[in-house]
Amino acid sequence: MYYFFYALFFVPLLLFFIAFGTYKLWLFYLYKKTNKIKVSFKEKNFYPPVTIQIPIYNEYNVVERIIKSATEVIYPRDKIEIQVLDDSTDETRLLVDKIVKEKQKEGFDIKVIRRETREGYKAGALKNGLRYAKGDFIAVFDADFIIPKDFLLKTVPFFSEPDIALVQARWGFINENENKLTRVESMALNVHFEIEHNSKFKNNYFFNFNGTAGIWRKSAILDAGNWHCDTLAEDLDLSIRAYIKGWKFVFLNDLVCPSELPPDIHSFVNQQFRWVKGTCEVGIKLFKNIIRSKIKPEDKINLLSHLFSPFLYVANILFFFLLWPLSHFSPLIFGLMALFFGFANLYNIFMSDLVLNKYKSFKQRIKDMFYLIMIFSAFSFKGTIAVLQAVFKKRTPFTRTPKKGNEQKRYVKRDRNYVEITGFLYYLLAIPILVKLKLWGLLPWILLFVISSLYFVYLSLSDLKG
């Protein structure tokens, strides 16, 4: 039995080693290798017709802002079409109609496209809008974004190269310092764009469309098979299908598109759950296509490492359950090993944050890291559920992430996170058992989960009262 647990322990150990170790170090190496290279914006007399698509679903607080920014984009007016893809079921519809009519009177080519059903959710709306799009290039912006006035001037010229399918801009965050949660979110996303996207692009590796703040060549979308509605990550799905067909992508790290971060725990959990499950769904769906593709072997590894990285949530939970029996044989060794792998990953994030945010004090950085531990440790149960649902192909609806905007109306779904509450109670009840069995090596690990789960529950309940 002892060796059986050792064999099982090797699986999550390998996952941690590959994802937390080798892959992260490789990304950091790429960053250090090319971070000083600047991507210059091309200036060409190239003004093809462009369609701006704005998918909306009950976004009363932010819809006026995004439509206004779309009409303020600097580009020949006769070359821009704006599609408001409105699937709303509330008073957002009335506000959209009012704004669009005003803009039409001002001479803008803007229209509202609605469907009888929300089939396919966001992917279905984009696919439906593409049927009527006049533009050769399709810019996609979620409702909580603000389109920079020079967005088209800085992105469209890259399409003068016939093999470019996508130009992706970086996300900025207008509410980055709203609270502790938004600071942690911005920290994680800045690492995603600066360390991952930027480095992969400059070293000719795959990176994906992020669902918004990007512009596609319409013919590339169609060539890749159009938008698919069978996963929760339609952006990643389309990106891979286009990439393995030979299309190329451009990432502009210096072109920042402001957006909003989820400021409350419920919206954050919904967003993370969708991203985790969607990524796994795409990995399972396109695994064979990637293996059989003609892209270079190291890029296949890069792609698969990204797609299956959510399995680290499962590995995290496996660590806990496997450490229980293993700690009975070697309590100190396996307890320290668990802490080592946990802190090794945190050290990686700490160093990335140190590189990207030099203005932060050491004290502030430690506070943010502590909060990151609390949030993502507690999310492990929900993340594991998301992965397992993807593996067993359980379909779930696309749950939008509500945004506050001007706070005229609050759309936060006020439900308790029962999974995290259950996890907290389980960990809490496990403490006296571990003490009785003298499994001291496991205690630091479970105390971390108890504290993080308790804090997660506290945030859930306090938000409910707000």
Overall domain count: 2
- How far apart are the first and last residues' alpha carbons, in Å? 50 Å
Question: How many distinct beta strands?
Answer: 7
Q: What spatial form do the alpha-carbon principal axes imply?
A: globular
Uncertain regions spanning at least 5 consecutive residues: none
Top CATH class of the largest domain: Alpha Beta
What's the CATH H-level homologous superfamily of the largest domain? Spore Coat Polysaccharide Biosynthesis Protein SpsA, Chain A
DSSP helix count?
16
Report the major sheet. Answer: 7 strands, mixed
Order of H and E elements: HEHEHEHEHEHEHHEHHHHHHHH
Question: Can you tag this structure with a few keywords?
Answer:
466 residues, alpha/beta, Spore Coat Polysaccharide Biosynthesis Protein SpsA, Chain A, 2 domains, 7-stranded mixed β-sheet, 58% helix
What does this structure look like?
With 466 residues, this protein is of the alpha/beta class. The chain has 16 helices and 7 strands. The model has no long low-confidence stretch (mean pLDDT 84). The protein has a 7-stranded mixed sheet, with helices on both faces. It folds into 2 domains: 2-31 and 310-465, no CATH class; 39-264, Spore Coat Polysaccharide Biosynthesis Protein SpsA, Chain A.
Quick gist of this model?
With 466 residues, the chain is of the alpha/beta class. It has 16 helices and seven strands.
